[in-house]
Design goal:
Blueprint lengths: L1 H22 L3 E5 L4 H14 L4 E5 L5 H9 L5 E5 H8 L8 H9 L3 E4 L8 E6 L19 E3 L1 H5 L1 H11 L6 E2 L2 H9 L5 E5 L4 H4 L2 E3 L12 E6 H6 L1 H8 L7 H12 L5 H11 L11 H7 L1 H13 L7 H5 L4 H32 L1 H15 L3 H12 L4 H25 L3 H9 L4 H31 L12 H10 L2 H39 L1
Parallel strand pairs: 1-2, 6-7, 6-8
Antiparallel strand pairs: 3-10, 4-10, 5-8, 5-9
Helix pairs in contact: 1-17, 2-13, 3-19, 12-13, 13-15, 14-15, 17-18, 17-20, 17-22, 18-20, 19-20, 20-22, 21-22, 22-24, 23-24
Length: about 525
């Protein structure tokens, strides 16, 4: 009865999650990729639109494929993008196309490109500024021993490593390296060449030499907004305010904002607020930008600064980052993901385990299928689920977690049932119990300790795996980990990893206590038999 009630509660919560998502149609959802500049631009859009609409910023959703899928699915309405990425990576053009041509092709997809922000953030390769370091990309071909540490997205992009290697005749084999830690790897001489964005502040901080693109491979990457066409119609006042950002962010401004986050340790929200305060947008008609309103009202300005400071400074102490105001929210999100995913995995996995134990011919098929599902890389699975489910956030994250939790539950259920003594099965049959009655009253109770061990494994595993949910906007402790990776901030990484580890230990302890209680009852039941 308790198990049935728990399952009902889990399903109800999942339905409520979907209803909340549907009810959020009056919210302007802004997305951003998983690097500093995109976080900051997302916060600028959020604060600009906030006086005119309910706004939510879904931070650090991942690479281009994931954010684009979220946009096409309608889970976000707008995000900062770059013309070069639109041209070569999204629209797959072999030759540079005009902005007008891109608009026509995107319109057929229900998307639009607008509001050039005013700066070009092109790709480049950089090395340590040693005296004998090359100055041009063409010089790299003659140095086959150089170690390339490139971001995974750059390696896979047509306008990244593949095209660059073909243009310059490069034969080196690059290693995939998260962009957030590439600078430190270069400084420690673990790699020799990394990919960078031209507006990054850490170029001068680390004294790097940016290699000249002497064969003009990289196109311009002017910052623009990629948006759903219906968003401009649904939020006219907010879109009008956002449109006033056109041409207002210079390359110098963007470098300074990146430096404020990455070097000075300011929160993304604070960086965005300070830039808007220093560059108030013009008030035209009824459209008043966020900073114009707050500048005229000292109390409103103070409230806005308080909101900007709410995202704890990245360079604050480890304890302050762990116990900041977001801890409760992230804990609730993480627990929700874990509890619902394990409950749903039990609903699916236990019957499959019973089926595998009852039908030997299907046993290897069921166990093999559960094993294969668990081998799918997590980010690849999430990227596939977004277009399939038409959503980002909690729903695809739950599906992925259920997939990864199935194997230990299915396997242990099957193993536990197979370990029930044959004599007890015969005794149950002699008492006249039908197969279903024997399963419910004899087999499952005797197999319960083994089944619980599988559920414990799935729950502990899910606590750790749930951190990937932040990559698609489902929240949890993974939010801090993604920000820490973007900023190369070890304290922020630990602020996400430590609570997740503690929750995993707590989960394991609770299940071990439950297992002990069940095992004791099991022994008493066996003695009575």
């Amino acid at each position: 009865m308790y198990a049935l009630n728990f399952v009902r509660a889990a399903v109800l919560a999942l339905l409520c999650t979907g209803q909340v998502a549907m009810a959020a149609g009056d919210t302007l959802h802004i997305g951003s990729k998983r690097f500093t500049e995109s976080y900051i631009l997302g916060e600028i859009l959020k604060e600009t639109a906030a006086p005119h609409a309910k706004v939510e910023h879904l931070q650090g959703l991942g690479n281009t494929a994931i954010v684009l899928a979220a946009l096409q699915a309608g889970r976000i309405d707008v995000y900062p993008e770059y013309v070069g990425t639109l041209d070569l990576e999204i629209l797959k053009h072999d030759q540079p196309a005009s902005l007008e041509q891109m608009r026509k092709e995107l319109a057929a997809m229900g998307l639009g490109v607008a509001v050039p922000l005013g700066f070009n953030n092109t790709y480049a390769l950089a090395m340590r500024g040693d005296a004998d370091a090359p100055h041009k990309l063409s010089e790299l071909a003659g140095r086959p021993k150089l170690r390339f540490g490139l971001s995974h997205e750059f390696i896979g992009r047509a306008d990244g490593w593949r095209g660059l290697a073909a243009r310059y005749g490069l034969t080196q084999r690059p290693e995939g390296l998260d962009h957030g830690i590439a600078y430190e790897a270069l400084r420690r001489e673990q790699v020799d060449v990394i990919d960078i964005y031209s507006t990054e502040a850490r170029i001068s901080q680390y004294g790097l030499r940016v290699l000249e693109d002497d064969r003009a491979f990289f196109p311009r990457y002017d910052a623009v907004l990629l948006y759903r066409l219906d968003a401009a119609r649904r939020f006219p006042a907010a879109w009008k305010a956002i449109s006033q950002l056109e041409g207002r962010i210079s390359e110098k401004d963007m470098i300074a904002m990146n430096a404020a986050a990455e070097i000075d340790g300011q929160s993304f929200a604070r960086v965005a607020h300070d830039w808007l305060a220093a560059h108030p947008l013009p008030a035209e008609g009824t459209t008043v930008a966020a900073t114009t309103a707050t500048a005229a009202d000292p109390a409103a300005s103070a409230r806005a600064r308080a909101r900007a400071d709410a995202a704890a400074p990245h360079r604050a102490g480890l304890l302050s980052k762990i116990f900041d105001q977001d801890l409760g929210r992230m804990t609730r999100q993480h627990l929700t993901l874990v509890l619902l995913s394990v409950a749903l995995a039990c609903v699916i996995g236990i019957p499959l385990g019973v089926l595998a134990a009852s039908l030997p011919r299907l046993r290897q098929v069921v166990l093999g299928l559960a094993g294969v599902l668990q081998t799918i890389p997590s980010l690849a699975l999430l990227a596939l689920l977004i277009p399939l489910l038409g959503a980002i956030g909690t729903v695809p994250a739950l599906v992925a977690l259920v997939v990864y939790a199935l194997l230990p539950i299915v396997r242990n259920t099957c193993t536990g049932l197979l370990q029930v003594p044959a004599g007890l099965k015969l005794a149950a049959q002699a008492l006249g119990l039908r197969p279903m009655q024997r399963l419910v009253h004899v087999d499952l109770p005797l197999a319960l300790p083994v089944i619980l061990a599988g559920v414990k494994t799935a729950a502990v595993f899910s606590v750790g795996t749930a951190t990937i949910a932040a990559f698609i906007g489902a929240g949890g402790y993974g939010e801090r980990i993604t920000i820490g990776l973007a900023l190369n901030d070890n304290d922020m990484l630990l602020a996400g990893a430590i609570p997740a580890a503690l929750l995993a230990l707590l989960t394991q302890g609770m299940f071990e206590l439950l297992e002990r209680v069940v095992t004791n009852r099991h022994r008493v039941s066996v003695k009575r038999m």
